[in-house]
């Protein structure tokens, strides 16, 4: 084996499931941010965690509102998901800019993309500084799924986002 760095290791271990972090902006609209660093933490109580750069606008919205929805986007919006990962919601309405159709969930103020395989509605429990990122630890309130949507995965870091063909 040759010695490599951690970013290269993340390419070697791909694919990773792609997630859209859905947060509510001050005007009530939804902001979307692309992330692949998330995990299940506990089934009793139900908890998940994800990491985002400290400078992330979506992270700022989660820390402010204490609410977030993680969605596993479907393959029909792969291009839009890639665009969401390279644009800040601080100055851009990504939903409008990229033409993403949205849907609402029961008992949730945050809309999510219509083409979502899974939606995990959460309350922020706490966040922890981890180097250049924050780790967001969340209590799961509700989970929704659509088995007809094909999940997206990140390959070679974030250079490709696509579904896995069986």
How does this model look, in words?
The chain has 166 residues and is α+β, with helices and mostly antiparallel strands. It has one domain (6-163): Electron Transport, Fmn-binding Protein, Chain A (Pnp Oxidase, Chain A), CATH 2.30.110. 16% of the residues lie in helices and 45% in strands. It contains 4 helices and 12 strands; from the N terminus they run αβββββαβααββββββ. The chain has helices at 6-12, 57-65, 78-84, 94-97; strands spanning 16-17, 19-24, 30-35, 38-43, 46-53, 67-73, 102-103, 112-113, 116-130, 133-145, 152-155, 160-163. The strands form 3 sheets. Strands 3-2-6-9-10-5-4 form a 7-stranded antiparallel sheet, with helices on both faces. A hairpin with an 8-residue loop joins strand 7 (102-103) and strand 8. The longest helix has 9 residues, at 57-65. The model has no long low-confidence stretch (mean pLDDT 92).
How is the topology of this model organized?
Layout (H helix, E strand, L loop, with lengths): L5 H7 L3 E2 L1 E6 L5 E6 L2 E6 L2 E8 L3 H9 L1 E7 L4 H7 L9 H4 L4 E2 L8 E2 L2 E15 L2 E13 L6 E4 L4 E4 L3
Antiparallel strand pairs: 1-11, 2-3, 2-6, 4-5, 5-10, 6-9, 7-8, 9-10, 11-12
